[in-house]
Amino acid sequence: xxxxxxxxxxxxxxxxxxxxxxxxxxxxxxxxxxxxxxxxxxxxxxxxxxxxxxxxxxxxxxxxxxxxxxxxxxxxxxxxxxxxxxxxxxxxxxxxxxxxxxxxxxxxxxxxxxxxxxxxxxxxxxxxxxxxxxxxxxxxxxxxxxxxxxxxxxxxxxxxxxxxxxxxxxxxxxxxxxxxxxxxxxxxxxxxxxxxxxxxxxxxxxxxxxxxxxxxxxxxxxxxxxxxxxxxxxxxxxxxxxxxxxxxxxxxxxxxxxxxxxxxxxxxxxxxxxxxxxxxxxxxxxxxxxxxxxxxxxxxxxxxxxxxxxxxxxxxxxxxxxxxxxxxxxxxxxxxxxxxxxxxxxxxxxxxxxxxxxxxxxxxxxxxxxxxxxxxxxxxxxxxxxxxxxxxxxxxxxxxxxxxxxxxxxxxxxxxxxxxxxxxxxxx
Length: 428
Known about the structure:
Elements: H1 10-34, H2 36-57, H3 68-82, H4 90-99, H5 102-112, H6 118-145, H7 170-188, H8 195-215, H9 218-234, H10 239-259, H11 261-276, H12 282-296, H13 306-310, H14 343-370, H15 380-392, H16 405-424
Helix pairs in contact: 1-2, 1-6, 1-16, 2-5, 3-4, 3-14, 5-16, 6-7, 6-8, 7-8, 7-9, 7-15, 7-16, 8-10, 9-10, 9-15, 10-11, 12-14, 15-16
């Protein structure tokens, strides 16, 4: 006699997937700090869990809603541009382009499922706060003693490396600080704060700026200032602490010539020289190389990771003055790097002008979704997550690769967090 298999308990499976995803999201930030492979696995598992959940529930309406169609169009075009024969990066470029989908899927999963639970959102904020404190305290220890807990000294130009061996502390810290900092600062300024609460809020903001200044990486300092200005515009009660923190930061930069000469060199002397001679600076050479690639491949770029695969090609050795000076080779091989240090330049070298347009449209769609209700009394956390997104996608910023997990993982995690907050609490 044949037995009838038991019916699949779909709700039980979905509940297990939800619990697993809630735990997994808390491990992404520590993974991005010290175990990139772990972060990648967790991102993939959350995405696969979300797709399994949608299959079990037959819920696919999200594919037609909000920012998702725009992101899907951008990703599809990137894949087309990476097909061998269209792109120039070979089969590996196509595989990597296909894998990029894990990031928008992660964002959807965070927005609609994983971070729909307010308890998980609170825990994620706590993990971000602990991670930011971990980076900042080790940077201060290194400043005071010359070495971090692992025994690593300052980097070559005097940058503080925080808990790392290389100077990569400032970039993740600049993105974590807005949501981490604005929650306690906003709490101190609730209602009608007295002098001491106002002083504490200003002091906390000034400490955050001071840590960024002492680390000594130019762009993260500027992006931190940008984030604080965005917060001050959206939350009027933050304006006094923000102004106080920026003034304190300016005083610290000015006095660093005596307090920390390496910091003064990087933030003032070296930065000033690079801005005065931008076309011949490393960043100017990378921009010129990206423009040359885009000029030669305006419709499809070179496919995913096209800058890396094409940077050493002499066809693109054209500097800013190449039109009137054919000898200007844009630095030749010396002008190369593995990415153009800007997400928009990366978008155009990967997928041409159509890819750049779709990438910008995707960023704007996210910006609109994150901005819902911000002018009607949003919480400090929502404002902080909005500011973190602005920091991550500021067009004039110099950044790491747009899809490297140590930077992209954090950016997309914070984006999903911000979208989940916007969906749960559009206004206060």
